[in-house]
Specification:
2 strands
């Protein structure tokens, strides 16, 4: 079977599966199960049991009894004992070995099995599309559909207080399994957290990537709509997870923040969610915290991940700088649709930067992210982001506003003389835009003219070693130098 390259990350998430070493009756049943609906049902049952156990441990014996009594049991898909065990029902005896490792271990194993089924289905679909050169829009991805329905169906995990003050689990019909799993990620084992993130991401992007993406478009769109309807809960939770504080016990919050960052970026690939996040009513709590704090996190992984999220937020581009359009049913490889969608995403970003130029560029990128107090990685990646924003035609208004500022020019000139060669190279990519502007305001011309001799001399030796191998850099530097040499003193 040909491997589906677009979803190799889903296969990688399966490595080290908890199914490999399981020897209990439950592990064997889970390993053999090929019914995603039963597996998701089992996850829900295990999750409810885990919540009840957590309540019991936190509240003491009285609460434990109340939680156990109130915890609902997932109905079995069939009368067979094997199906009941897979669905997460209580075993008939505490010594039968079915749930000997607890509900969280079984939950982790079921999530692993769901990932395997999703990958196998997608690999088969991708292989068929590659071999035939076409996709069948009459085919329904049964596994992905069942997982989507199971993760979004109303479930029953609202917490209330009894008269005695004990926490109990009651019915809450508006909730779904996926939002609850995200909310309680700290409760789940590490491998289970990774699985939740992988499944969430897959449901969002299965219709965006791959040669067979048209066949999964309805699932991707439907799940994105589900996330948008609950964005105040789901998206807010993904952002709040970045407020983590590493601990001596292993900094559990770090891996949760990274997983939530991945889920947030997958959500932003859908224009309706992207537009909602950048709306005036939401950007202050969903966008600004990244620029104000998360990108400055001393933890390298967290800071880099936050910077990647900022890049997606301010450009609308996914990894690699490309924007994949949602699949259009019946239109395979529709480049016109992809270009239209790219322009839509860039338009949303451009509108946000125009509306919030002062808050984003002046108050955060310039004063915080490019400040000498910012760490090396933050300054470097921010410069790269800034140059990509300014060089994008969709951001013409923001670009003209930026390169018309004398203070912005001074900031870039300081970075141009940074001790780091990487930062000076990135600063040059922004500096050249100031010089190339045919409509420079007098104050910008004055700064360039006053420093012309020094700049020409400095630029002559700037990354001279690149000129032999980088033709574009050599030509751009020559153009910048010649423009500076021809610069005339502004008239009084």
């Amino acid at each position: 079977m040909l491997e589906n390259q677009a979803f190799g990350w889903l296969k990688n998430a399966i490595k080290g599966s908890t199914l490999d070493g399981g020897t209990s009756n439950a592990a064997a049943l889970i390993r053999a199960c090929s019914d995603p609906a039963v597996l998701v049902q089992g996850v829900a049952g295990d999750f409810r049991a885990a919540l009840a156990d957590e309540s019991a441990h936190s509240e003491g014996p009285p609460a434990a009894a109340a939680a156990t009594a109130a915890a609902p049991v997932a109905p079995a898909a069939a009368d067979a004992p094997a199906t009941a065990e897979l669905a997460g029902e209580e075993p008939p005896s505490s010594n039968d070995g079915v749930n000997s490792n607890g509900p969280l271990d079984d939950l982790t194993a079921r999530l692993d099995r769901i990932k395997i089924l999703l990958y196998e289905e997608r690999s088969a679909s991708s292989a068929a599309a590659q071999q035939s050169g076409a996709v069948s829009l009459n085919w329904t991805p049964a596994v992905a559909t069942a997982v989507y329905k199971g993760c979004t169906a109303p479930t029953t995990t609202e917490t209330e207080q009894t008269e005695e003050g004990a926490a109990t689990t009651n019915i809450g019909e508006e909730e779904g399994l996926m939002p609850q799993l995200i909310q309680h990620l700290p409760l789940l084992p590490f491998e289970a957290r990774k699985s939740v993130s992988a499944i969430f991401n897959y449901l969002l992007v299965c219709g965006l990537d791959g040669v067979d993406r048209q066949q999964f478009a309805s699932i991707s769109t439907a799940f994105a709509g589900y996330v948008l309807e609950r964005a105040d809960h789901i998206i807010d939770q993904l952002v709040r997870a970045h407020y983590c504080k590493p601990t001596k016990e292993g900094a559990d919050g770090v891996d949760i923040a990274l997983l939530c960052g991945s889920m947030l970026r997958s959500s932003l690939r859908h224009a309706p969610i992207y537009r909602w996040v950048l709306a005036d009513a939401n950007c202050e709590r969903l966008v600004y915290p990244f620029l104000d704090g998360h990108v400055h996190n001393p933890n390298f992984d967290l800071g880099s991940d936050a910077l990647e999220t900022v890049r997606v937020m301010l450009t609308g581009a996914t990894g690699g700088g490309n924007v994949a359009a949602p699949a259009v049913a019946g239109v395979a490889g529709d480049h016109a649709a992809e270009e239209e969608y790219k322009q839509q995403m860039e338009g949303i970003a451009s509108d946000f930067l125009t509306r919030k130029y002062t808050e984003v560029i002046d108050e955060r990128i310039n004063k915080k992210c490019l400040s000498p107090k910012a760490n090396y990685m933050t300054r470097r990646m921010t410069l790269q982001l800034l140059s990509s924003i300014l060089l994008n035609r969709a951001n013409y208004q923001a670009m003209m506003q930026y390169i018309s500022s004398q203070q912005n020019l001074v900031t870039i000139l300081c970075l141009l003389r940074d001790p780091s060669p990487h930062i000076t190279l990135d600063a040059f990519q922004v500096f050249k835009i100031f010089v190339a502007n045919p409509h420079k305001p007098p104050e910008v011309v004055q700064v360039l003219y006053d420093n012309k001799a020094k700049l020409v001399k400095y630029l002559d030796g700037l990354h001279k070693e690149r000129e032999g191998s980088d033709e574009q850099y050599r030509d751009e530097k020559r153009l910048v130098v010649s423009t500076l040499e021809g610069l005339e003193v502004p008239e009084a």
